[in-house]
Design a protein that fits this description.
This protein is an alpha+beta fold. The protein is built from ten helices and six strands.
């Protein structure tokens, strides 16, 4: 679609070949509005969840590092690195909450919603580099430098891990509570990252404790080295999953199929629309989506009617789904109908010519 540079004030003015409106200013529909959580309230709860995780990880990282240096436990030092990585990642997530809510401007006319996914990607990289790689190094170092001496100070190390398990478990319960109670939290990369970090931390602590106990019982450092390798593999897997999710959002993901189908049905139901040639959608943030449709109107409408119809249709879409705050309609003229096109009127028609000059 051809369009001029978007107006940051989103006044709903019509551009050649495409028109746009803002749900926050022109949406009049009621259906679905009450189902959308308040962004500020949602971010406030997410911020508390992140701060709880950050406080727990800082205290635990210091305790694990001291315990690891005293005992010489590679598994405990791996867990200390894990907690340091989680602490840095929580700072990334707090930054994401702040930057993603900045208002749209001329340089970023669609807002800063994708900042959330960028900082989540950095958090995934942090888990991989600071947590996973250091854990692999600790496991390898324990194997190649084993001098056969009995471990010392492991009782204190196990006590530290017990306290860490309680703290990480409390943080995980807080994150799971928000995930279950707050609508839309499952789609928030910040909440998902905290849940993944805390769940991984709990499993990592259990692995470290198992490795230390087996080392004490058997005198074989290979058990602790194996625990370090296990923690490293766990962190690399979590980092990969979080990074893959952030990549999909940064590249540009469509809205979920159910919402897309409902929008298509609403457009099809409009009496002035003869055919929906193409419907494109993309998530711009947690509560923001771009909807672009190429539509063929029924014959016999003059330019004034077309403008009024477009405004009404856009308001209907944006009012029904407030997250669709960027709605573009491109008025095209469908090619002559054939038996093939009549059987599949939903297929994209790239040969249509725009009545207003847009393609």
């Amino acid at each position: 679609m051809n369009q001029r540079e978007p107006d940051t004030e989103k006044t709903g003015t019509k551009t050649p070949g495409a028109t746009t409106t803002d749900a926050k200013t022109s949406g009049t529909g009621k259906s679905g509005v009450d189902d959308v959580p308040d962004p500020k309230k949602s971010d406030g709860k997410t911020r508390i969840t992140i701060l709880v995780a950050l406080a727990a990880n800082i205290v635990i990282a210091v305790a694990k590092a001291i315990g690891g240096l005293i005992s010489g436990s590679p598994a405990l030092l791996s867990e200390a690195a894990h907690s340091v990585a989680d602490s840095v990642n929580e700072v990334f997530l707090l930054t994401a909450l702040h930057r993603s809510r900045r208002p749209a401007d001329r340089r970023h006319p669609f807002g800063y919603g994708k900042e959330r996914y960028f900082w989540s990607l950095l958090a995934a990289v942090g888990i991989f580099v600071m947590g996973g790689c250091f854990s692999f190094y600790q496991g390898y170092h324990a194997l190649v430098t084993d001098d056969g001496e009995s471990p010392s100070g492991y009782t204190a190390g196990l006590i530290v891990l017990g306290v860490a398990l309680a703290a990480e478990g409390s943080s995980l319960l807080r994150a799971l509570h928000q995930l279950r109670k707050q609508k839309g939290s499952a789609k928030d990369p910040a909440v998902r990252t905290v849940v993944a970090e805390d769940a991984t931390a709990v499993l990592g602590v259990l692995l470290a404790m198992a490795g230390m106990v087996l080392h004490l019982v058997t005198g074989e450092v290979a058990w602790e080295a194996g625990a370090s390798f296990g923690i490293g593999l766990l962190l690399v897997f979590v980092a990969y999953r979080l990074g893959a999710e952030a990549r999909v959002q940064l590249v540009g993901e469509s809205v979920d199929p159910e919402l897309r189908g409902r929008i298509a049905s609403l457009l099809d139901a409009q009496p002035e629309i003869d055919n929906v040639a193409q419907l494109l959608t993309m998530r711009l943030g947690m509560e923001s989506a771009l909807i672009a449709a190429r539509i063929d109107l029924v014959p016999g409408l003059d330019s004034e009617e077309i403008e009024l119809i477009c405004v009404r249709i856009k308001r209907s879409v944006a009012g029904t789904w407030p997250e669709a705050d960027h709605v573009f309609l491109d008025i095209t003229e469908a090619p002559p109908e054939t038996p093939e096109t009549s059987q599949n009127s939903r297929a994209p028609q790239t040969s249509g010519t725009s009545r207003t000059g847009g393609t």
